[in-house]
Amino acid sequence: MPSLAVLYDPESGQWQRFDKLVEEIEVHALDKVIPTIDYLDNRVEEEGLYAAGFVSYEAAAAFDEALQTRKQDDFPLLRFGLFASLEVMQLPAQEQTLEPLTWQAQETAGEFSAKIDKIRAAIARGETYQVNLTFPLSTEFTGDPWQLFLQLARHQYAGGAGFLQSDRWAICSVSPELFFARHGDQLTMRPMKGTMPRGRTAEEDDLQSKALKKSAKNRAENIMILDMVRNDLGRLAPPGKVRTEAICSLEKYPTVWQLTSTATARSEAPLAEIFRALFPCASITGAPKAKTMEILSAIEAFPRRIYTGAFGWLKPGRQAHFNFAIRTVLAESFPSSPQRVRLLLHSDGRREGTFLPIDKAPPDLLKLSFTRHAVDSRNILLFHKTTRRESYVKALSEAGDANEVVLWNERGEITECCTANLVIEKNGELITPAVTCGLLQGTYRRDLLRRGIIREEVINRQELSKSARIYLVNAVRKWRRAELLPD
Fold it and tell me: pLDDT > 70: what percent of the chain?
């Protein structure tokens, strides 16, 4: 499905649906993040379009190499839709009653406690003052993500709520925390630090709010982050143009009291420069930012993906609003009845399309063997997908106990397998055989190269035999682990 974006505007108090999709943009390479933000900013301003999407936490190094994160997986660093129009809407009533979800922590209490001990030791050494440690929760979910979002939004009353959906991912966020808002040359940030549960009675609730307001620990934490936010804004604004509008203000939510502080600045910086100076906010990393992110990258076991990243929108006239993705559910979609499409182009220009069920899933670990005979890297048919597949059928018929065969050329260079391209791990990088060796440039292989996830290099038979990790990749099965059988 095309991008769906429904986001709340706290200033107008209205829900917005971004409509009439013009273009979808997804980025997986760090060096493409800033040019893409520039591209979005320019198209919104020059063509009167609207943009809605997100920047994941792992994109931080695109703005500053010192900001370390865990290595990204296949989740996008950035994904936005460009839209021709924007409509104000009423959030519909929830149509389905969802079963309660059972969330499971992705690490044990002992593992978490060990990480806390490491953080305390780092604080004692003076390496950091505050660390925002995270871990993911997961659950099985077979419902409609839109219905889940409606349920969350009805109960949370969050000023930064939003729903973003693509073919694979749905983001259901009820975040209350503003990252930044831009109105012309005015920038506003409102970091949130300091939390207290709501009281059970009106009297207890009043005591809880006053206790939070007076808490030395919570106020110190909040002001520490406010100072860092002011410093980041100072990178964008002329001298004297950064102001503190509010310190440790109380905000009331259904289950908690929160402390927020507000800082503003005057700046005509483009959007990419704003992200370079501000992302990620110290309120979701800790202080000092770079050293604390280094500590987090070493002890957090999973990429954060959208969590503590930023999502929001752009409108013409230098209007922008981004929230931090906290209190956020990321739903990953898996088709229930996958199909593959076979497109055939005849020599006379006729086109033929066929939908076919995907064959039974192969084993989790494929077994490979070398084909008996070398391919000729000068053979032009190797570079194109045609109906001339006799050589591949013959090679597979000689596979013996293997599920697939590895093809190689007259120079002993690895080329591909019969139904997939090949990738190996070498010195911490993912390498695929160079196309000049004589192979088909599969569509998924091209996409992985374009996104910078893999790179090309000549691989000989000995290197393949010694590789600790081997993968087969294609558009139908994506990534599959494999091992080479002994000769």
Answer: 95
- Among the listed residues 32, 58, 115, 177, the single catalytic one is 177
Task: Identify whether 289 is a catalytic site residue.
Answer: no
Q: What angle do CA 128, 132, 133 make, to 5 degrees?
A: 110
Closest CA to 433 of 407, 410, 451, 452: 407
Give the DSSP letter string of 349-408. S-EEEEEEEPPPPPPSEEEEEE-SS-B-TT-GGGGS--S--HHHHHHHHT-TT-SEEEEE
Provide the pairing of β-strand 178-183 with 186-189: antiparallel
Annotated active-site residue 46? The verdict is no
Which tens digits make up the pLDDT trace of 262-295?
999 999 999 999 999 999 988 899 889 999 999 9
Among 193, 289, 291, 315, the one annotated catalytic:
193
Domain 4-185+268-332 class, CATH top level: alpha beta
Please tell me the pTM assigned to this model.
Answer: 0.69
Could you tell me what percent of the chain has a pLDDT over 90? Answer: 72
Contact status, residue 485 vs residue 368, Cβ threshold 8 Å: yes
Return the bridge partners of 482, or none.
366, 470
Structure tokens at 271: 């959007």
CATH of segment(s) 363-484: 3.20.10.10
